[in-house]
């Protein structure tokens, strides 16, 4: 029998500590340490004694034996990098109620006939699943489904039926008999996922795991599994909006940051194949504080509206709030605006927001963000047919961004007539664009647009 010891495991990040504390020293989350027993040594292992295993040359290994399987849902395949690979383990995280079960049921229906599948639910009864399938109007509702939460039973079923694709909804409901801790705790989550990964690699079955993102930390979040799986997708949405974005944050078999867009309707999720103008709220009249930019999400340019509100602060410590953009970046840009643009916003509250619940992490949004703030501060609107992109450096220079031409082409396609871009992104003469392009290399040149 292996010796066991007690450890306090953070339910948010999985870090373990020898003593209880109110705050996890690793991720900083509060009240997430839970007492758990861990095996001090694994039974049957003795250090130093092992059999040699066969080493093979990479060029002898048949890499072609892993062709991609497309789901048939184009937006999903795009995010996965053109479908999944046999034996891959994919984690889909998202807030409860965002539509994970709906999407996966639709995905299973889409591959029906091409691939043997199994839908394992630990959250709903089979009749609830059947009702949902009916509501979705799925062409065939005879998908193999299993309501089970014991990982041992699930693995036995998978081994017996050998499906090509298994969906586990959700990993947080599973438990293994080998551990005492409650389902949903970090140790259960890790052990169940590890067993599924092992089976997937050994049998070539692709496994999709659903993980709820939790705020309270009472059940462990999908973050603790990210390193164990091949691909991590996150489902995001703007509260109140029917659009759902799905993004790859890790992908061993494709590019990350690809974005898939769906719309939630009465009959399930519908693909939005041309989302480039989705995040624009077209104003009738030009309004101060609104700037349209072209951001790149993976391989796809998207037009997005950045809004700012700059208002005299009533508190001693003016507020800086950034939604959909990085807060630190906002502070840095305001400092650049002061130092190189001569505009002091030190006594002003500054709020910035990306419309439609979109998140922009690339520096191409620097210039639009600064211009939006400036436009709000001065009460001067920018033209509604203008798009802006460019990185702003600490020395007040405007740096080029990747894929400049592609962004301009998309803006022209959506009917924009003017563009303000970094000098190095000025389109080549050979590129015919129905756009009046102004290229700038310094912040003060760009600021003329909001004066
Ligand atoms: P669900 O897939 O159950 O979310 P998750 O598995 O991520 O928790 O989706 C639940 C929400 O989706 C629920 O609020 C109702 C809504 N919905 C629709 O709007 N249309 C539909 O056709 C379905 C099936 C669900
Ligand atoms: Mg669900």
UniProtKB/TrEMBL annotation:
Residues 349-451 are annotated as: Lon-protease-like. The keyword Metal-binding applies. ATP binds at residues 94-101. GO terms for biological process: recombinational repair. GO terms for molecular function: ATP binding; ATP-dependent DNA damage sensor activity; damaged DNA binding; hydrolase activity; zinc ion binding. A motif (RadA KNRFG motif) lies at residues 250-254. Keywords: ATP-binding, DNA damage, DNA repair, DNA-binding, Hydrolase, Metal-binding, Nucleotide-binding, Stress response, Zinc, Zinc-finger. One of its GO terms (cellular component) is cytosol. PROSITE patterns: RECA_2. Residues 65-213 form the RecA family profile domain. Transmembrane segments: none annotated. It comes from the Bacteria. The keyword DNA repair applies. Pfam families: AAA_25, ChlI, Zn_ribbon_LapB. InterPro entries: AAA+_ATPase (IPR003593), DNA_repair_RadA (IPR004504), P-loop_NTPase (IPR027417), RecA_ATP-bd (IPR020588), Ribosomal_Su5_D2-typ_SF (IPR020568), Ribsml_uS5_D2-typ_fold_subgr (IPR014721), Rubredoxin_2 (IPR041166). Plays a role in repairing double-strand DNA breaks, probably involving stabilizing or processing branched DNA or blocked replication forks. DNA-dependent ATPase involved in processing of recombination intermediates, plays a role in repairing DNA breaks. Stimulates the branch migration of RecA-mediated strand transfer reactions, allowing the 3' invading strand to extend heteroduplex DNA faster. Binds ssDNA in the presence of ADP but not other nucleotides, has ATPase activity that is stimulated by ssDNA and various branched DNA structures, but inhibited by SSB. Does not have RecA's homology-searching function. The middle region has homology to RecA with ATPase motifs including the RadA KNRFG motif, while the C-terminus is homologous to Lon protease. PANTHER family: DNA REPAIR PROTEIN RADA (PTHR32472), DNA REPAIR PROTEIN RADA-LIKE PROTEIN (PTHR32472:SF10). Belongs to the RecA family. RadA subfamily. This is DNA repair protein RadA.
């Amino acid at each position: 029998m292996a010796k066991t010891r007690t450890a306090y495991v953070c339910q948010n990040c999985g870090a373990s500590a020898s003593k209880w504390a109110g705050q996890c020293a690793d991720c900083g989350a509060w009240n997430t340490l839970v007492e758990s027993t861990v095996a001090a040594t694994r039974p049957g292992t003795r250090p130093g004694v092992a059999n040699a295993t066969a080493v093979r040359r990479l060029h002898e290994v048949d890499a072609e034996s892993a062709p991609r399987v497309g789901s048939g849902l184009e937006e999903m395949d795009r995010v996965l990098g053109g479908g999944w690979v046999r034996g891959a383990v994919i984690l889909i995280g998202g807030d409860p109620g965002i539509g994970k079960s709906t999407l996966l049921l639709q995905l299973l229906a889409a591959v029906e006939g091409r691939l043997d599948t199994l839908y394992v639910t630990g959250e709903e009864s089979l009749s609830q699943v059947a009702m949902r399938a009916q509501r979705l109007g799925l062409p065939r509702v005879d998908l193999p489904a299993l309501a089970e939460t014991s990982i041992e039973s699930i693995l036995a079923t998978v081994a017996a039926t050998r499906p090509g694709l298994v969906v586990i909804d959700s990993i947080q409901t599973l438990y293994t008999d080998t551990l005492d801790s409650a389902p949903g705790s970090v140790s259960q989550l890790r052990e169940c996922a590890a067993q599924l990964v092992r089976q997937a690699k050994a049998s070539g079955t692709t496994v999709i795991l659903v993980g709820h993102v939790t705020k309270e930390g009472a059940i462990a979040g999908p973050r603790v599994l990210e390193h164990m799986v091949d691909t991590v997708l996150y489902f995001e949405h703007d509260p109140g909006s029917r659009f759902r974005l799905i993004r790859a944050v890790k992908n061993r078999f494709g590019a990350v940051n690809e974005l898939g867009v769906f719309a939630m309707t009465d009959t399930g999720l519908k693909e939005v194949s041309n989302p480039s103008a989705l995040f624009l709220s077209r104003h009738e009249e030009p309004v101060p504080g609104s700037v349209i930019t072209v951001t790149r999400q993976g391989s796809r340019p998207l037009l997005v509206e950045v809004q700012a509100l700059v208002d005299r602060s009533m508190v001693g410590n003016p507020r800086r709030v950034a939604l959909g953009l990085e807060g630190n970046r906002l502070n840095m840009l305001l400092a650049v605006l002061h130092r190189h643009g001569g505009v002091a916003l030190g006594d002003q509250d500054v709020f910035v927001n990306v419309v439609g619940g979109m998140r922009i992490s690339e520096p191409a949004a620097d210039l639009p963000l600064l211009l939006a703030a400036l436009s709000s501060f001065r009460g001067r609107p920018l033209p509604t047919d203008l798009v802006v992109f460019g990185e702003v450096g600490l020395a007040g220079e405007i740096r080029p961004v990747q894929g400049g031409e592609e962004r301009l082409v998309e803006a022209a396609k959506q009917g924009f007539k003017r563009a303000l871009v970094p000098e190095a992104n000025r389109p080549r003469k050979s590129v015919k664009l129905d756009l009046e392009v102004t290229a700038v290399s310094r912040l003060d040149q760009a600021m003329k647009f909001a004066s």
